[in-house]
Amino acid sequence: MAGRIFISYRRADTAYPAGWLFDRLVEHFGRHQVFKDVDSIELGDDFAEVIASAVASCDVLLVLIGHHWLTSTGYDGDRRLYDPNDYVRLEIESALTRDVRVIPVLIDGARMPLAAELPQSLVGLVRRQALELSPNRFDFDSGRLLRVLDQTISGMHPVQRGRVGHEQPARHRPPGQRRRIQPWMVVLAACGTIAVAIVVLVTATPGGRSGQPPPAKAANRASSSSPATTSPPNPAATAKIIVTDDFSTREIGWVDTYHRNSGTYTGNGAYRLTITGANGQAELASPANAPQGLGDQTPLNLDVSVDARKLSGAPHGYGYGIALRNDGGGNDYAFLVMDHAVAIQKWVGGGARVTGDPAPVSTSALHAGAADRLRAVCQTAADGTSVHLELWLNGTKMVDYTDRDHPYTQGYLGLYVETISDASSTAAAEFDNFTAAQIRG
Length: 441
What we know:
The chain is α+β, with helices and mostly antiparallel strands. The protein is built from seven helices and 21 strands.
């Protein structure tokens, strides 16, 4: 049975914040303590029965209220909250009847509804103290919520907290301690072909620059690990910085490549990129106004760095980082963080298959809930027959690979997110302190 915290939301209204909050709660309490429909219902389960059972067993119901929560209508044009069979209405009614703690969560400046705007059975909601949750201060707001949930749940179940199989709450971890590497990542690191098979079977369907969907992508398992090193790579000695961007202005002009409005300046000196879908959906934002044509086809050898932080992503089903040598038709090198691992992927348009069996590299060096410094190096050999690729994480080289199988010798760069899970999910990341340097010589 799903756990003690139930997230009530409308997908059309607050799908992204619900995903971010779900990830934060799962990290803190453990997956079986948190219920969210898409992530908590198994294939073949009766949707209505599972939700009813989860609401009946929860200790806390979080009601996510966005700008359209109150006015959302069904196919008949009537407001959904006035439909006696509306799932959101039934969830809240059940929780209020059982007198469990119900916390309204106001998303991105949404207002609390008035009693006169609600069915009589939901009027009790307006008397509950609400929490404001803003994307610009997500860590602070969600941290406040976690403290309330800790007190509520520990008071109801003092003996069961911290059972075997539940992750230790982040606030109790010693400074610098990372989440433990999951067994699946150890298996992947030892048997890279497993990871390869999963990604290759996925069909990517991003839209191209022209607005038409390019051919489906097949992943070339293009990452090959070498022993980690903290010594500077040779290209850095001859690199010339071309552009830096702290995203405090729109001067560089980052634009979405595949899906309009997937990227946005946060107003807080960062750039956020989001994609929702399944089976290889991806988004890449390129710097349209960067010098030397970095947002266009270029053969430049590049050394690119950025601070990147995960906002949301289904377990084992997302990636975010830097893309280089993108041609707008499905071909590029992606330098990615993927759960407790990092990887270099080679994506190929047209459904082509590329040989090779490298695997993601598992690591405990990722900063849970905070930014990591990613660095991608891409350098073409003088004779043009190979491209050397390196991925660095927080100053340590994690992946070192040379592509000799029809390597990409030109293309544009970008910030990148992807969702590779079988079920539809949302992958989102935030980027800051971007630097691109040309490798000369």
